[in-house]
Amino acid sequence: MQFRYVKWDPERHAKAMSTFERLMDLFQQLLQFTAGDAAEALNWLTQLDGRYGLTEDGMGIGDFIEELKRQGYLSEDEQTGLLQITARTERAIRQRSLEEVFRQLRKGGRGNHKTPYAGAGDERLPETRGWHFGDDPHLLDVTGTLSNSFRRAGLDDWNLAEDDFEVYETDHRTTMATTLMIDLSHSMILYGEDRITPARKTAMALAELIMTRYPKDTLDIVAFGNDAWEVSIKDLPYLNVGPYYTNTRAGLQRARDILRRRKNRNKQIFLITDGKPSCHFENGRMYRNAFGLDRRIVNKVLDEAVICRREGISITTFMIAHDPYLQNFVHELTEANQGRAYYSSLENLGEFIFEDYVRNRRKRMR
After folding, report:
1. Among 127-131, 223-227, 287-291, 349-353, which stretch is predicted with the lowest mean pLDDT?
2. Of 85, 107, 136, which closes a domain?
3. Residues 307, 166: one domain?
4. Which of 22, 218, 244, 340 has the CB geometry, 3.0–4.6 Å to 316, for a possible disulfide?
């Protein structure tokens, strides 16, 4: 049998896809930009079809919509008649986000993170140590054990003593509780940049990663603007900005309350933001200042960072703005918590979060 290898041709690959597959692929991309608004995404798809002739093989946009309904990707509201995406579509968008953002994801076991600590685990290391009572006999290093015995007793009077036994070290495995904070303040769509779409896509990808590869871990989502509130994973595709200020303090408080209830040994906060804290609550009333880094607001945020540090919660900030003035605030926040900070672009936001989450470099075992 002979094989013929040719250079990858993206046009040939596109032709091999059915019309429905190509439209579905584009429809999912548009849903990421419309915050899950099916009607708006289909309107954009219709305009693109009129301009570029996307439909063929007898399938028009109307036929595509009917097929989406038939396959359970779309449903129609009985009262309003509006088209809505279903749970199946939400899951498909999360899977697509995972493929886009985490292309370097390697297949592996579920529910565990490597740590710098040796201990009870399920992955054998090449290093060995002396046997201790309670060690798994399957980890016995037979060669090392016999070598120890021969060196001690020789060939003529060979025997085994307790000190001869060697066992292989293993990686300690642990679980992680993560709260992902997403800034929904108005600045996330200002200055000619769409910053909320990459943040939303990254959140969906991280959720899918944890549910499929690390199911023993937990992920909670906290959105924050004028205040902070929890967001369920099924609602991630619909996250959108509002006419909000930036109440980072409220977000950290909500995230800390969530993590306090989690039983995982390791806890962390991932903070995605592009701007400065600009409001907080004092005695039930909002104090706000959209201009500059008001120390009255900033200091309250730093207080929360210190409380997180004392409770063993690390904060990793992913800053998607490059203003040195704002980066100084991130530096203060990171120093107060003794956490980490990344100054990433919109294109590599997911890669930064993926690397930090999977490598899990700064575990603290208590």
Report:
1. 349-353
2. 85
3. no
4. 340
Pairing of strands 266-273, 279-282: unpaired
Query: What pLDDT sits at residue 188?
Result: 86
**Amino acid, res. 335:** E
Give residue 16's pLDDT.
43
Q: Is 215 helix (H, G, I), strand (E, B) or coil?
A: coil
Q: Give the sign of the dihedral formed by CA 281, CA 287, CA 293, CA 297.
A: negative
DSSP string, 308-327: HHHTTEEEEEEE----HHHH
At residue 212, the 3 state secondary structure works out as helix
User: Could you read off the pLDDT of 167-224 as tens digits, one per residue?
Assistant: 887 655 568 899 999 999 998 887 778 889 888 988 898 888 888 878 888 999 999 9
Sequence-distant (≥ 6) Cβ neighbours of residue 53 within 8 angstroms: none
Tell me what pLDDT residue 132 has.
77
Which single residue is written with the structure tokens 């990344």? 342
Ordered DSSP codes for 94-133: HHHHHHHH-TTPPP--SS-EEEEEESS-SSEEEEEEE--T
* Claim to verify: residue 247 and residue 346 sit in the same structural domain: yes
User: How far is the C-alpha of 168 from the C-alpha of 123, rounded, in Å?
Assistant: 10
CB atoms within 10 A of CB 166: 19
Q: Exposed, middle or buried: residue 53 (CB in 10 Å: 0-12, 13-18, 19+)? A: exposed
**Is residue 111 situated within a structural domain?**
no
Domain that residue 247 falls in = 175-359
What is the C-alpha separation between 185 and 34, in angstroms, rounded? 17
Indicate if 224 and 314 belong to the same structural domain.
Answer: yes
Q: How far apart are the first and last CA of the chain?
A: 59
Tokens of 223: 């959105």
CA distance 75 to 68: 9
pLDDT, tens digit, 9 for 90 and up, residues 339-363: 888 877 777 777 778 767 766 533 4
